[in-house]
Amino acid sequence: AQSVTQLGSHVSVSEGALVLLRCNYSSSVPPYLFWYVQYPNQGLQLLLKYTTGATLVKGINGFEAEFKKSETSFHLTKPSAHMSDAAEYFCAVSNPNTGGFKTIFGAGTRLFVKA
Amino acid sequence: DTEVTQTPKHLVMGMTNKKSLKCEQHMGHRAMYWYKQKAKKPPELMFVYSYEKLSINESVPSRFSPECPNSSLLNLHLHALQPEDSALYLCASSQLTVDYGYTFGSGTRLTVV
């Protein structure tokens, strides 16, 4: 079975500061990993993904994440936070061997950005 | 077209009503999904269609009835819902290999009174 744990339900940073959102996963096979962002009253938008290959992946809006197999982690970072980054962020995992249709989402981390 | 369109955006229905949610995509994705999201919670998978056939039903109560009339459309028929079914209902689509991730619609906010 697969699972995702997001450390910290709320993270608060100042504008211009580093953003770090933590995600650890559990999977019996090499997983597909995703980060999604959700703004209020909106659907989820894909930020970035890791499937195979380079372990440092870059996404939209200046975000990046690094797949670390030894630590079973896929933390999301952004060097400098903007007010517009305030949103809910979900880490997600799926199993490519079973078609990947059952994507499991973490509980989410609410990012607050202070002026 | 890179969007998933959901209608209506908001729906209020009584417990004896019958209503339907609609989802449409024109990206050529052959997998489509219904998710339910309660406030401050992650999305929960309800149904998955691949090649217009139901492939996953996550033990969803029969008062929710999905339908996939063609490769671009996905419906969710609602009947005799309970107040606890009030939530944001999200439709998503993906390629069959899912390695490109999902494209989500903006959802239908459902309130059952």
The quaternary state of the protein chains shown equals heterodimer
Runs of chain B in which pLDDT lies below 50 for 5 or more consecutive residues are none
What is the overall pLDDT average of chain B? 94
Sum up the overall morphology of chain A in one term.
globular
Relative strand content of chain A: over 45%
C-alpha termini separation of chain B: 36 Å
Contiguous runs where pLDDT drops below 50 for at least 5 residues of chain A:
none
Care to count the β-strands of chain A?
Answer: 11
Tell me the number of helical segments of chain A per DSSP (H or I, 4 or more residues long): 0
Mean pLDDT of chain A: 94
Biggest pleated sheet of chain A: 6 strands, mixed
State the distance separating the first and last CA atoms of chain A: 41 Å
Number of helices of chain B: 0
Report Rg of chain B: 13 Å
Q: Structural class of the helix and strand makeup of chain B?
A: mainly beta
Structural class of chain A: mainly beta
Q: Largest protein interface?
A: A-B, 23 and 28 residues
Report the strand count of chain B.
11
Helix content of chain A: under 10%
